[in-house]
Amino acid sequence: MKLFNVGAWRPAIDGARLSDANDLVQRTLAQHGLSSGACLPNSGGMSTLDNVLATLSQNHTAGPTSAALPDGAQFNQDTYTCPAGSRMYRTYVPASARDGATGVILMLHGCTQSPEDFAAGTGMNGLAEQHGFAVIYPAQSRGDNAQSCWNWFSRGDQRRGRGEPAILAGLATQMATEHGINRDRTFVAGLSAGGAMAAILGEAYPDVFAAVGAHSGLPVGAAKDIPSAFAAMGGTILAAPTCTQDGPRVRTIVFHGTADATVHPKNGEGIVQRAMNRDAINVHETSEHGEDNGRKFQRVIASDDTGAGLVEYWIIEGQGHAWSGGSVSGSYTDPRGPNASAEMVRFFFDTPREVN
User: Fold this and answer.
1) What is the CA radius of gyration of the chain?
2) Residue-wise pLDDT tens digits, 167-176
């Protein structure tokens, strides 16, 4: 796959148009409360969305990306290839899974992040040791996106059977098969662009993933190209058709900070609404308020008639574009607030196993 340039801004043909283009990017950055770090080149046209996304992320820096492994644990690197393409990935198999993994979680990093950085920031490997599941950390290649963002805004990467969804679902299926894991114990979660891609995978591959975790992400169909991606990040979201994909129910947990200046909180609401509308069943909603580690939150729970949780929506007061309750050893994390990783794991596995 080539770097996504379909619909990209064309070069300005004179100084006035280049100045106008510059002003547009600066206004976009200002709307997100950030400095104008995405300056345009002196010639050659506007920056791509990737460059602007990188600038929007500069309020965080990457921390250490490696740590000593427990005896018996493995953190391996490999490459997955299928007709849709290939990606490098890391897999964490905990020492506690020596007698068999309890499940598989596909973790999708955000822009400018790496598998190692994302693992460090989310602390998911530690939870894997506690609960015995395996974790997959795919890496977006620089050749497919200059800032390592998953291409959630590309129509070619929003559907089943093609592009990045096909690669990622294939990788998850391969890992689950290797460990003898059923669909009911295969999950996907992500941050920002990774959260948007996780939502896509949940709708495109309900036969592969039993549940989705989206943190600071965007709903499926929120954008179709670069201009609409800018708009969606700012809160103007495209209206996408309701998901009509046949297949088993996919449960969804969403985290979003009220002070997210990079991806507007309306996007979290959008993911929740699509998940709520996916099944034509009676849904019962409850809501609770609390405070965890210095941040107040609201937790909205949607359940079916049996009491089984279908959707959880965590609204974190005052939190920006960062993984809630994450570790400072990784980038884009906020140590304050509910532990999103622990809550996702609890939500994922809090459902009865399917009968073989």
Assistant:
1) 20
2) 999 999 999 9
